[in-house]
Design a protein that fits this description.
With 391 residues, this protein is an alpha/beta fold. The chain has 3 domains: 140 residues, no CATH class; 182 residues, 3-Layer(aba) Sandwich (Rossmann fold); 49 residues. The chain contains 19 helices and 7 strands. A 7-stranded mixed sheet has the order 2-1-4-5-6-3-7. Helix 17 packs across helix 18. The longest helix is centred in the N-terminal third of the chain and has 18 residues.
């Protein structure tokens, strides 16, 4: 055990793994004096339980998902210095040895015959014979599985200069959405083009409120996340940060949707010029591995008043064209119109069947129609709210 501590001291490439709370507690136990080992063992197990009950699985997962210099260079297809390759191979062998430590071995090391909490060990689902081969196999598939925070998360936000995971991501499934199949098909086709390295269009989803524009974007993300798709949601005030965000992800092997919900501007909005330049492919052009998806209830994204039309601008027509030109810069516009009553009722019936709502068909139609009228009109959102109110 003392020798394992010395080996951990030599870790360089996988320093993030070494410095995790679990391995810090493990290391502290290994180098501790005899009288402190029981308390430090309990501290180690408590930290492990915060992440995983199986020590072997924790080590393997931490190593194969770690963001480090080696995996970044490999994902970019760059040549790897021999010293770095040797370092990685030896460090992984150290973690492979550590991952096999059992609670019984630690109990003998502690020298205590009383009760000590156990943890699980062993990794039966390891696909390869050893941890290094498992690591190499994952790197070969890095454009789908990712590394670092992107390996365990699908949806992100931009916060205080960093891309951070969404703690409670939207889990909407495409199979949970009814109606608008043609519209979602266009979105899926465009997203598949991005994933396959073909030209993909920045996309504007526009239409009435409650028609499922935002849900469609997040459902498509969930559908294709296993193919290497991730979503970063920003608000309108963060549009000025788009060049920074694109710079962060530009060399990542995954593909990204940058999602802006409920987009609209005033004519004086300083974010307007930034977004136009990016959509037009100017100095702050898109990263090759991302597209911008935006939703809006307005076909023309710049709010316009009658005074804007009747102003004293000599070139009034030019001003009006400038105000409506932003939406034209999106390569693909998908229109979500408010559903007809028959389509609304069809959505209600499908949702009711999925959610297990038992009700006579005529009664269901009558109640659903009345509910929509109280909500201001027919929409998929009203259909979902109605069905959920009957559960």
């Amino acid at each position: 055990m003392k020798n394992l501590a010395k080996k951990l001291d030599s870790i360089v490439v996988f320093k993030n793994v070494k410095e995790s709370p679990v391995l810090r507690a493990f290391y502290t136990l290994l180098v501790a004096d005899f009288e402190n080992r029981i308390e430090l063992y309990a501290d180690f197990v408590a930290n492990l339980f915060d992440y995983n009950f199986n020590f072997t699985e924790f080590i393997v997962d931490s190593v194969v998902t770690d963001e480090n210099q080696y995996v970044v260079l490999r994902s970019k297809g760059e040549e790897i210095p021999e010293v770095l390759s040797d370092c990685v191979k030896n460090e992984i062998s150290i973690f492979d040895e550590i991952s096999r430590v059992t609670p019984e071995e630690l109990k003998r090391f502690i020298g205590y015959s009383g009760y000590l909490p156990k943890f699980e060990s062993g990794y039966e689902s390891l696909e390869k014979d050893n941890l290094f081969d498992e690591y190499e196999a994952r790197i070969c598939d890095i454009n789908k599985v990712g590394y670092g925070i992107y390996s365990h998360n699908t949806m992100f936000r931009y916060l205080d200069g960093e891309i951070v995971p969404v703690k409670t991501p939207d889990t909407t499934n495409v199979l949970d959405l009814f109606g608008y199949e043609r519209e979602r098909g266009l979105l899926i086709d465009n997203t598949n083009a991005l994933l396959e390295g073909r030209p993909a269009a920045n996309t504007l989803l526009v239409g009435d409120a409650g028609t499922g524009k935002s849900s469609s974007v997040k459902a498509v993300t969930n559908l294709l996340s296993h193919e290497g798709l991730r979503l970063i949601e920003i608000n309108k005030s963060q549009i000025q940060k788009l060049p920074e965000i694109m710079d962060i992800i530009s060399e990542n092997p995954l593909k990204f949707i940058i999602f802006i919900d409920d987009l609209s501007f005033n004519a004086e909005d300083t974010n307007l010029g930034t977004l136009k330049a990016i959509l037009e492919g100017g100095a702050s052009a898109n990263a090759h591995n991302c597209v911008i998806y935006a939703t809006s209830n307005r076909r023309h994204l710049i709010k316009e008043t009658f005074s804007d039309r009747e102003g004293d601008d000599i070139h009034r027509q030019d001003t009006m064209q400038e105000q409506i030109s932003l939406s034209d810069r999106f390569g693909l516009t998908i229109l979500y119109t408010r559903p007809s009553k028959p389509l609304y009722l069809e959505i209600v019936h499908n949702l009711a069947q999925v959610k297990g709502v038992k009700m006579d068909e005529n009664e269901l139609d009558t109640k659903a129609s009345a509910f929509a009228l109280r909500k201001g009109g027919f929409s998929p959102r009203a259909a979902k709210q109605f069905v959920e109110s009957q559960m």
